[in-house]
Design brief:
The chain is of the alpha/beta class. It contains six helices and nine strands, in the order H-H-E-E-H-E-E-H-E-E-E-H-E-H-E.
Amino acid sequence: MILKKIKYSISIILALLLFNSQRVSAQKYTESQLKAGYIINFTKFVKWPDSLANQNFVFGIYGDDIFGDVFQKMLEARYKSPNNWILTEYNSIKEIEYCHVLFINSNNQDEINEILKLLSGKPVLTIGNNIPYFCQRGGIINFISEPNGKKFEINYISAKNKGFIIDSRLLAVAKLISASGY
């Protein structure tokens, strides 16, 4: 009798675990949630130049803000004190000042070229949002959609020229671009 109760209890626990794991794996994320998560994780796999140590981490957005409050909510969920992250939106190229990461969401190729020239030689991790030839022109990371499953490309030469060291684990899952850009 006791053995039957134990088997019954175990089967209920297993059923609940199975149900919960299916529910978690079926959870859908929006494109902006996925990209915000990628960006936060990118920063963990980049060794920043020593000159940037012990500063507030400035994340800039140029172009259409696809994140809304998603980015801030993810920071609050991941870090007990996201106060050392400063989120800044830039509406014009003239507004772009120093930031650690600049997410560029624009289709205007002239603007993109101007931004990349402006930031040339500065330790800013530039991230494009599916911008054609972004990394070939000197951008560091670019979200892409490819049938081979790659989600982003990295120009490791541009990163190195700006003083970044990108962890080999991040490079291993990226499409690598080796153009020097601007």
